[in-house]
Amino acid sequence: xxxxxRAPDGTVIRRWDDLPRRLALLGTFVVIVALVRLAGLxxxxxxxxxxxxxxxxxxWGSLTWIASVPTVLIGVACWLLPRKGVVRHGNQRIDEPVSxxxxxxxxxxxxxxxxxxxxxxxxxxxxLFPYVIEVVTDQAVELPAGLDVVPIVVPPTxxxxxxxxxxxxxxxxxxxxxxxxxxxxxxxLDEESHLTPGVVGGIRDFILACxxxxxxxxxxxxxxxxxxxxxxxxxxxxxxxxxxxxxxxxYFQYRLATAAFGVHxxxxxxxxxxxxxxxxxxxxxxSITEDAWWALSMLERGHRFGxxxxxxxxxxxxxxxxxxxxxxxxxxxxxxxxxxxxxPWWARVVLMAFMATWTVSGMGVLYTCTNLVLGLxxxxxxxxxxxxxxxxxxxxxxxGLQLNLRHYPEPLPRWRRAFYYAAxxxxxxxxxxxxxxxxxxxxxxxxRGFFVIxxxxxxxxxPAPLAGSPPQPxxxxxxxxxxxx
Length: 485
Fold this sequence. Notes:
By secondary structure, the chain is α/β, with parallel strands linked by helices. The protein has helices spanning about 20-45, 55-60, 70-80, 110-125, 165-175, 195-215, 235-240, 240-255, 270-275, 290-300, 320-340, 345-375, 380-405, 415-425, 430-445; strands at about 5, 10-15, 100-105, 130-135, 150-155, 185-190, 195, 220-225, 270, 305-315.
């Protein structure tokens, strides 16, 4: 029988992970495995045995298809895992202040204004705790007026002790200059991260759970990417894998209270004193993917992680070039994290294993393209396992699409929904090729800086201010603590 959560008024809250949905997902996975294998038998029945020495070498490339078997096993385990009961607290307010800390280079003022407006709107619907919006930029930016907005501008002369760069440098400056009390909480956001009323409740519930347990865990939840679905549907569909990954692999690690796979750079909830215990003095090696370096450093200091209910909404890269370069940065940075970050030995082993499977999977794109020409026979066991890996990623794309459509802010006609589902299935090889291209690009030319993709504002200008002043729950933080320099 499905465990159902109920709101204070008694209505059933249908979660993304309730039992019927988990069974449906696993059933979908099994069906796709069968369909992929049948398609392989139909179109590649006459695969020939390799004869030449070079062909035999190429034939070994079929093993790249099964590199993701550990990831599939983790994902299946996640969806089979019994769910914990979720304690919800309705409209109960708490006194702990929360800072929505947005980090940006400051070159996209309209996107920042939209993010501030989204945070205000979410807090207006559910004013469950005192809050402040700290906007950390490398240059002074015109921001929406209000006592709840605190601009923190990083001076060009500022240097950290280890000469950390990019976002790590900005985060360290904010940590040193924010007026947030030690027991306050930080919700890290990117410049295009939009809060939802649901995640406001999730933040409050997570903080109360940490207080009950006497342990300030680090929290993260699910990110949606549907903001550009209509104008940029191709790359939005390509990013649906990230949402699927959130509710499988990442959810699984947070249930184990760890972050061996790293964390996303946004939607990170952490208490201020816990973040200060580690900081962001990572040097250049840890500045490419400072989020993962920080996560492993937190594990090294004994901090544990957990899941935050609710969604933060972001947007996909605007161009194919940005998509590939983004993956290239992630791969290059995670490689440095796996090799050099301070971490428990087991966490380093897990991340290295993940990097190995990611690398080999990227090579699988080359093998697939080569074998389409050569037509070599694939061993039966490898073919079945490869079908399982392909089917799992297809399932993750589909669950990501389902969650994004479920929370899309406006009704979509059935034909458009059907188009998105059909495109998600048909174009998966294209999306896999793009992901593989990012890996190959990183191997050929590793990222040495911090490439930031352009995510333009969607409102055509600065959002209209909310009617009246932004709501300030009792005990709200005062106005600007750090003035632009």
